[in-house]
Every structure is written in structure tokens, then in C-alpha cells.
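How a chain folds remains the central question behind the approach discussed here. For one protein, we set the task of working out the C-alpha cells from the amino acid sequence alone. The sequence in question and its C-alpha cells are set out directly beneath this paragraph.

_____
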Amino acid sequence: MLLEGKNAVVYGGGGHVGGAIARAFAREGAKVHLAGRGLPRLEEVARQIRAAGGGVEVARLDALDEARVDEHADAVAAGSGSLDVSVNAISLGDVQGTPLAGMTLADFVRPIDTAVRSTFLTARAAARHMARQRSGVILTFGGGGGSPPVRDYSIGGFHVAVGAIDVLRRQLAAELGGHGVRVLTLHSGGLPETFDDAEIADGIRAGTMLGRAATLDDVGRVAAFAASDLARTMTGTSLNITCGAETD
């Protein structure tokens, strides 16, 4: 198992992406600590993990709540003996489909504020423990901040938000590398399973070189690899799982 004996915190663990990552981590032997605002969804993911024989704990918290994030990370490290992996997979609350010229400031700024604040707070909380351990992995989800702008469809502040996450990831990696901590981003280019609109889902697939897009299961598997020692030489970079929709 790739993550045997590891303790992993997944913020947004009740969502599509967070749940997929949490289940993959548990399959690879990690004890998963699900954190998020929606307790029923967290409990459902926890039920699935337990049914498969995995170890899991659930905590209700808002990743934008500084005191609660710090408190939870401290509790995980103290109660489980370490904090080895931290994943931020919370929803950014972005508004899409409205042209920037017609968007309110609040709608534009919301995903940027959420992305930067939650990534900073969750990464900082984990880094304090990981630096002392001289090991650990911090994962963010989004990437693509350096990719070309999207034509014919407005994604609001989302593109700016993932760009900010990219910058923060690189800076964290530079500062934490000397302490044995790795920082990576998973970049999917869009997951058809998470869209109710079939036209959008089909458009994501059509834009890839492989004629298919990453699945939630793909995201979980790559996240488990990134968090494991198999990826010990990787930090400061984005893992491109866009099926060729974007090239590096």
C-alpha cells in the first residue's frame, strides 16, 4: 500500500473531488481525516471508506475559519501521531457563464478570496507539523493558472483563483522544501462527472487529445501517487491529468 501508516486530512472531503481522493487514500492504507462544512456528505464518504475496511474520522469545520483549521490540524497530529498529507479540495463558489463585463465584484472576487485564504490556512496548519516531522505532502486541486484564457465561455474569477493557487504552491514548495515537505497541485482540466450539463461535459472531452477526460477515480489514483514516496522527487509543480487538453 502506497500510504500505509500515513495520516491524511482532506478538506472538502464530502465533495466529488475530496471524496474521490479520500477513498483512494484509504485504499492505499492511510487513515483519512475528512473535514468540511456538510456533515451528512462527510458521513456518507466515511461510511463508504469504513465499508471498504479503511480508517476514517470526520470533523465539521470551515476551511476559512483560521482558529478551527489550526485546532483541527493540531488535534490530528496529537491524536494520530503525525500529519502526513493535507489536501484542499473545497468548492471555490465560483460563478460561471456570466461575462466578466457583466459580473458583480462580489461574484468575481469570491472564488479568489476562497482559494487564497483556504489554501493558505490549511497549508500553514499542516506545514507547522510537517516541518517538525521533516516530511509531509501538501496537495491543492485546480492548477492551470498559466493556461490560455477560455474563449466563448466565461469562468468568472475561477481562472484567476487557480492562478493564485499556482503561485502560492510554488512559494510554499520553495520555503518548505528544506524541511522535507513537498507541495503539488493536481490539474484535471475539468471533470465531466461533476457537471450536470451534458454539453459542458462533452466539450471537456472534445478538447482533449485522448478523446476522454479524467475521471474522479483518476484524480484519486494520481493524488495517492503524489502523496506517496513514489513521487518523492516531485515538488513545486502541477500534475497535468488533462488527457492532453493542455500541454506543458
Remarks:
- Strands lie at 7-11, 31-36, 55-60, 85-88, 136-141, 181-187, 238-240.
- The longest strand covers residues 181-187.
- The chain has one domain: 7-240.
